[in-house]
Amino acid sequence: MKQNDPLSCCDLRPARKAPKTAIGQVLIEALPYIRQFEGKTFVIKYGGSAMKDECLKNSFAQNVTLLRKVGIQVVLVHGGGDAITKTAEKLGIESTFVHGKRVTDSEMISVVQMTLAGKVNQDIVRLISEHGGKAVGVTGLDADTIKAMPCREAGTLGLVGEIKSINTAYIDLLCNAGLIPVIAPIGFDEEGKIYNINADDAASSIAIALKAEKLIYVSDVAGIKVGERILKTICKTEAADFIEQGVITGGMIPKVLSGFLTLDGGVRKIHIIDGKSVHSLLLEIFTHEGVGTQFITEEVESANP
């Protein structure tokens, strides 16, 4: 295969061709979803292994580009914690965490800004562009995109912020120009002080502010599991029961609670999908079965994506 062949980014093993009828069926299955979501806004939080593995990075860039090409307005919010830690190590700066959150002093905020707004952000923009998309790098500092304030644990965590407001006009301007905003989650306050912001929280706030159709978390979690089974759909009542029963535990609890707060804010559906699976983004959105877990407000809602 040629290097620029759009199908050659992953496995070089001989591929078994799917029957043409099966390929046609997949395309037909996607059609109603393409029609339904044309012109709608999807906010995608990009993180985990999908940001590290070359095959998965290419797959994700292809998926995002295709979503934009079929008329969906895509806003991408990315993490980059591992990259920040590696950059800090090279500079001789120690990384400290409290309850999984990075302690961010004046030295570390410079590393965060340099890493997220620099290499991580621009690598994503470049990769999307290589696959035919038109992406633009944005930080929360650009055009007042993210106004922040100190988080409640500021005394312990330092320059870690919470979101005060989102400048939707600037994001809308970029989307309406056919661009994919790729947003690095840093913000600043009224005094110009810069803050490190959790990417999940930033994605949630941006999705609510934009009145997005969907917020999709691309991470290393396949979805919400009950035993060995991944739940296709979960509503708020079920989630509360599963937390009380100890079925949903640990780090998944704040993610689930945050997801339902985002739904309460007006976003129609939340999805958690496994970024370690090639093309999981398209499979979740454009097929009846999906591959992850979607959060809905009420049990009676449609379980389709």
Task: List its traits.
globular; Carbamate kinase; eight-stranded mixed sheet; alpha/beta; 305 residues; disordered N terminus; two-stranded antiparallel ribbon; single chain
Describe the structure.
This protein has 305 residues and is an alpha/beta fold. It folds into two domains: 39-212, Carbamate kinase (3-Layer(aba) Sandwich); 216-305, Carbamate kinase (3-Layer(aba) Sandwich), CATH 3.40.1160.10. Helices cover 41% and strands 22% of the residues. It has ten helices and 16 strands. The protein has helices spanning 20-37, 54-69, 81-90, 106-130, 154-157, 168-176, 199-210, 236-245, 252-264, 280-286; strands at 41-46, 73-78, 97-98, 101-102, 135-139, 146-150, 161-166, 180-184, 186-188, 194-196, 214-219, 225-226, 229-230, 233-235, 269-274, 293-296. The strands form five sheets. It has an eight-stranded mixed β-sheet with strand order 5-8-2-1-11-15-16-14, sandwiched between helices. A two-stranded antiparallel sheet has the order 3-4. Strands 6-7 form a two-stranded antiparallel ribbon. A hairpin with a 2-residue loop joins strand 3 and strand 4 (101-102). Helix 7 packs parallel to helix 9. It is globular.
Give me the count of strands. 16
Largest sheet: 8 strands, mixed
- Quick one: overall form? globular
- In CATH terms, what is the fold-level topology of the largest domain? Carbamate kinase
Arrangement of strands in the largest sheet: 5-8-2-1-11-15-16-14
Arithmetic mean pLDDT: 87
Total domains: 2
Radius of gyration: 19 Å
CATH level-two architecture of the largest domain: 3-Layer(aba) Sandwich
Beta content:
15-25%
* Sequence of secondary-structure elements: HEHEHEEHEEHEHEEEHEEEEHHEHE
Which class do the helix and strand fractions yield? alpha/beta
Number of helix segments?
10
Which class of the largest domain in CATH terms?
Alpha Beta
What are the low-pLDDT stretches, counting only 5+ consecutive residues below 50? 1-15
The residue fraction in helices comes out at 40-55%
- The CATH superfamily of the largest domain appears as Acetylglutamate kinase-like
Distance between the termini: 34 Å
